[in-house]
Design brief:
The protein has 268 residues and is an alpha+beta fold. The protein has a single domain, classed as q2cbj1_9rhob like domain (Jelly Rolls), CATH 2.60.120. Bound molecules: 2-oxoglutaric acid. The site of 2-oxoglutaric acid has 11 residues, from strand 3, strand 5, strand 8 and strand 9.
Length: 268
Amino acid sequence: MSDPVRRLSGQETAFYTEHGWLHAPALVEPGLIERMARKARELHSVLRDGASREGASGTVSVSAVAQAFGQNRGLAEADEDFAAPVFSPVMAGNAARLLPGEPDVRLQINNLLVKEPVGGAHGPTTFHQDFPWFPMDRSSMLTVWLALVDIPAGMGSLRFYDRSHLYGSLGRSFARDGDDAISQHPWIADLELSPPLDLKAGDATVHSALTIHGAAPNAYGTPRLSFAWTYFDAGTLYTGSPFKQTDDLGLRVNEVFDHPAFPIVPRS
Ligand SMILES: O=C(O)CCC(=O)C(=O)O
């Protein structure tokens, strides 16, 4: 079976290394995106209607994803179409080449992300870094954010503070009121903001766990449907810092994340 993900070019990996983010047009093949989008819509309508029945596709486990509206985790473990880009050897190779030293990569999390139109449940995504929340001893990690439908800038495609990954860990957002990254560090506003991106279904953005990013509210009449997943350097050590995803897994402090929840993804 051919890989549904295309290999990133040297120019793209160089851009990411310099800027801390990347727009990767047509990263995933259209047939797969159509299937993922259909399942995401089905799942969304199930969740919106508040039903707890099985997904109409029969392949998506609602119980696995209904934990948080707007952020439905673990689809790659439940459904072969969501698994395909996440466990793609080409994608794992892309991720390795984006990280310093081209390490093996582990999967950290995968998430169907839904941003409802203005007036619904969701507003903007305030600007933040991902890394400060994680119980990891190094920041060599990145997130692939894949558009499942066309996502014009006004629907809330991600924007990035250019080169903000060069400033290390800048602290947590979402911990207190008014703690977005720019309020905490007004100098960040002097960095260039990435252009508003009109993403086509199958386009992706990639950002470092140190890159400050956020998104506008969804000003369109339909939900913004994207699927995001995160890889990290397989040599990363667990610090033991409290974190819901890892607290009860029996991970050992100062050892690697050798656990089925964090598989190493074979690469080509
Ligand atoms: O989808 C969003 O609006 C935010 C996603 C995000 O912050 C992330 O994937 O790291």
